[in-house]
């Protein structure tokens, strides 16, 4: 009897392990997709700024919001279509030292390519945020960096964590949730049951 039980535990464990590997192989990463579309926006904004500079505009602010720079300098001439935000927290800003050193950054995803990459948790997602230390002397950029670091310490809710795991590995997540619910049910029954 005991041997039989041990055997079935072994089989179930093996099965979970196998499904886990299978799940990882087919999982897509929505966090990565979000970062990719945000970075495409940054590429577009950097290219628009480059064109605007080439046409003779040199006076960009050291730091400013997208809306401001759009109204004052870029307009539909350089940005025919305003970028759509991949997440509600994506917001675009410019940091500008000179015509060769400037970047657009997103509140959440950072710059297009920087010298550091920080992996952050954002609700049910996880993605790398890129920072460039050469802009640290610009105070607004420094506080952006501090905010990024703050997201690293973000503690997802249980439900966000389940969703995060599910997109990475659907099958094992379902199995874990079932085990979790069963465990909770038996614990409840032991304490409150007849
Ligand atoms: Zn973003």
Count of DSSP E strands?
6
Low-confidence stretches: none
Name the average pLDDT: 86
Instruction: Round the Cα radius of gyration to an integer and report it.
Output: 24 Å
H-E order: HHEHEEEEEHHH
Main sheet properties: 4 strands, antiparallel
Structural category is: alpha+beta
Percent in helix: 55-70%
Global morphology: elongated
User: What percentage of amino acids are in beta strands?
Assistant: 15-25%
Describe the strand arrangement of the main beta sheet, using strand numbers.
Answer: 1-2-3-4
The number of helical runs is: 6
Bound molecules: zinc ion
Q: What gap, in angstroms, lies between the N and C termini?
A: 28 Å
Question: Can you characterise this structure?
Answer:
The protein is an alpha+beta fold and 194 residues long. It has a domain at 30-155. The chain is 57% helix and 16% strand. It contains 6 helices and 6 strands, in the order H-H-E-H-E-E-E-E-E-H-H-H. The protein has a 4-stranded antiparallel sheet with strand order 1-2-3-4, with helices on both faces. Strand 3 (101-106) and strand 4 (110-111) form a beta hairpin. The chain starts with a helix and ends with a helix. The model has no long low-confidence stretch (mean pLDDT 86). The protein binds zinc ion.
Provide a brief overview of the structure.
The protein has 194 residues and is α+β, with helices and mostly antiparallel strands.
What are the key terms here?
alpha+beta, binds zinc ion, two-stranded antiparallel sheet, single chain, 4-stranded antiparallel beta sheet, 194 residues, elongated, 6 helices
């Amino acid at each position: 009897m005991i041997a039989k039980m041990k055997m079935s535990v072994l089989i179930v464990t093996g099965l979970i392990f196998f499904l886990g590997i299978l799940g990882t192989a087919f999982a897509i990463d929505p966090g990565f997709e979000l970062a990719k579309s945000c970075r495409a926006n940054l590429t577009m904004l950097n290219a628009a700024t480059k064109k605007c500079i080439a046409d003779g505009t040199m006076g960009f602010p050291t730091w400013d919001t997208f809306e401001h720079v759009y109204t004052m300098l870029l307009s539909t001439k350089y940005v025919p279509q305003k970028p759509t935000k991949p997440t509600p927290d994506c917001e675009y800003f410019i940091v500008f030292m000179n015509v060769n050193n400037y970047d657009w950054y997103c509140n959440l995803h950072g710059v297009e390519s920087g010298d550091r990459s920080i992996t952050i948790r954002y609700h049910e997602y996880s993605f790398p945020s890129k920072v460039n230390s050469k802009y640290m002397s610009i105070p607004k950029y420094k506080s952006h960096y501090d905010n990024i670091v703050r997201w690293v310490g973000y503690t997802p809710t249980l439900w966000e964590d389940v969703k995060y795991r599910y997109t990475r590995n659907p099958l094992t997540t379902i199995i874990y949730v079932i085990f979790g619910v069963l465990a909770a049910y038996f614990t409840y029954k032991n304490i409150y049951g007849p």
